[in-house]
Write a structure and sequence with these properties.
This protein has one domain. It is 45% helix and 27% strand. It has four helices and twelve strands; from the N terminus they run H-E-E-E-H-E-E-E-E-E-E-H-H-E-E-E. It is rod-shaped, with a radius of gyration of 33 Å. 24% of the residues are buried. About 5% of the residues have low confidence.
Amino acid sequence: MKRGQVTIFVVVGIIVVVLILLVVYFRVEITDFKKETFQSEKLITEEEAIRVLVQECVKKVTDIGVFIAQKQSGNLYLRTEGVEFNSYTVPFVYDKGKVNIISIEQFQKDFNDYISQNIPHCIKSKASFEKIEARTILDEELTIQVSYPFTIIIEGGSIRNDQGYEYINKVPIKEFLKIVKEVADETKENPEAIHLAPLITQEIFDSSTILKQEKTIYVLKDFLRGDDYYFSTRRSSWKKY
């Protein structure tokens, strides 16, 4: 074999070896890229799934809290005595000379506490959650804003999410509390009367009253949603009407 032919074979061999190494290199790179892409997509999918779960829990817990407040004279937590009605304890907003209504500020604070306490129990996830913070805004509608950062760790990567959540419930709680206050104030001025003026002059609720000796239960029904709202008063004495 001539020297020139040997050189050609050597060069060709080197080229083949280089090509093989390049193929192996790019195959490894492509495999790693696909693996990283898969892990990234898995993280993003998992992150979105957890965000949806948290958002659903914000809505669920808020709606339950609204339901409780509707049945308990606007209160989430019972702080005063009340009358048993339809399996609920309906706090007295007027009781023997004293007005016991919940303020907008207290309502918002209570709702913040309620949301913060109950959302963690609603979520079933392996994600690592940080401190939860809630902000309640009660105006013509009820707005709940929640901050609940979390981190997901899976094989080969992790991702942190600190986006907030918001849920708006157009429930007329503020109008309800306004009516409760008017009835409580009028009852203080004239404890022996059943005060219907605040109920008649509004346009959101149908209303009725139930008398139990010295106790009066006010039942309001939201025209639009059909939800029932309760509040009650207790007089120091009573007489039949």
